[in-house]
Specification:
The protein is mainly beta and 207 residues long. The chain has one helix at residues 2-16; strands at 21-39, 42-45, 47-48, 50-61, 69-85, 93-112, 115-134, 140-145, 153-166, 169-177, 193-206. An eight-stranded antiparallel beta barrel has the order 1-4-5-6-7-9-10-11.
């Protein structure tokens, strides 16, 4: 996977020194999680919860700044939360927090000058996680660090659109599915398989 990221970096570095136009930017926003856990032959859907994300981007316009086709590389920090009823115990409520570094590599096509559709793979690094369990009254029971139970790397995807309000100011929305489970098969929460995806909305500025 490091080779994939290295190739992406070389491509964008080459573009930066060619006749292509390169722009940098920042962006931030919130996300809503969608999760499912398979445990003991049962499939439990998590309750959607809110998180946040933020980071930077580099956009490359091959040969011409007005090219309708562009490439965009991002580096984002994401905080994702999800909730479950009765995952660990019929009376318990579980809250899972996942922290990631996301590296989307997107192809962008501008339908009109102010609107683009975007799609591409994402390379995701699970850097931290925590599970907090409370009873039905909301009283604290215990929490555990999930870092040792997480898969370090996951492939995902991003599909969405970006609307430019004025000059470099934009808003974007995208769906981000993660492929496979976030936790290791041999260690994950009593043998459970946890899968997550998000819908994110944000605002940003390209310089």
């Amino acid at each position: 996977m490091k080779k994939i990221l290295f190739v992406a970096a070389v491509l964008f570095s080459t573009a930066a020194y060619s006749q292509s136009t390169v722009r940098f930017g920042i962006k931030a926003g919130g996300n809503v999680s969608f999760s499912k856990t398979d445990v003991q032959n049962l499939s439990v859907k998590g309750k959607s919860d809110f998180g946040f994300w933020g980071g930077g981007l580099m956009e490359v316009s091959p040969n011409n700044p007005n090219n309708k086709f562009k490439l965009q590389l991002e580096a984002l920090y994401s905080n994702i939360n999800s909730k479950y009823d009765g995952l660990s115990d019929s009376r318990a409520k579980d809250k899972i927090n996942l922290q990631q570094i996301n590296v989307p590599l997107l192809a962008k096509y501008f339908i009109i000058p102010s609107l683009s559709i975007n799609a591409g793979p994402t390379f995701n690094f699970n850097i931290a996680g925590k599970e907090k369990i409370s009873d039905t009254t909301g009283a604290y029971v215990f929490s555990q660090n999930l870092k040792g139970q997480l898969n370090t790397f996951q492939i995902g995807a991003a599909v969405g659109a970006t609307y430019y309000i004025c000059e470099g100011l934009f808003v974007d929305a995208r769906y981000n599915p993660l492929f496979g489970q976030i936790n290791k098969k041999e260690n994950g929460d009593g043998g459970s398989k946890i899968r997550m995806s998000t819908i994110s909305l944000g605002i940003g500025y390209k310089f």
